[in-house]
User: Which sequence fits this backbone?
């Protein structure tokens, strides 16, 4: 399952990076998916990070 971060919604809280640094990173102060890790959506920690994102910017499809 693919993960994406909507840059229009993200406000750069950094929660996702703190929770799963192997999958999420920070680019110019905003959350982003580490290149090559877009398919890590099955990881329960990633799901948890998506559910906990304060701006609901993380989508798993
Ligand atoms: S948790 Fe959500 S708002 Fe915070 S940096 Fe990650 S994507 Fe952006």
Assistant:
């Amino acid at each position: 399952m693919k993960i994406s971060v909507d840059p229009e919604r993200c406000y750069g809280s950094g929660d996702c990076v703190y929770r799963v640094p192997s999958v999420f990173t920070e680019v110019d102060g905003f959350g982003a998916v580490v290149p090559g890790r877009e398919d890590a959506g099955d990881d329960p920690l990633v799901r948890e990070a998506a559910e906990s994102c304060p701006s609901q910017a993380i989508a798993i499809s």
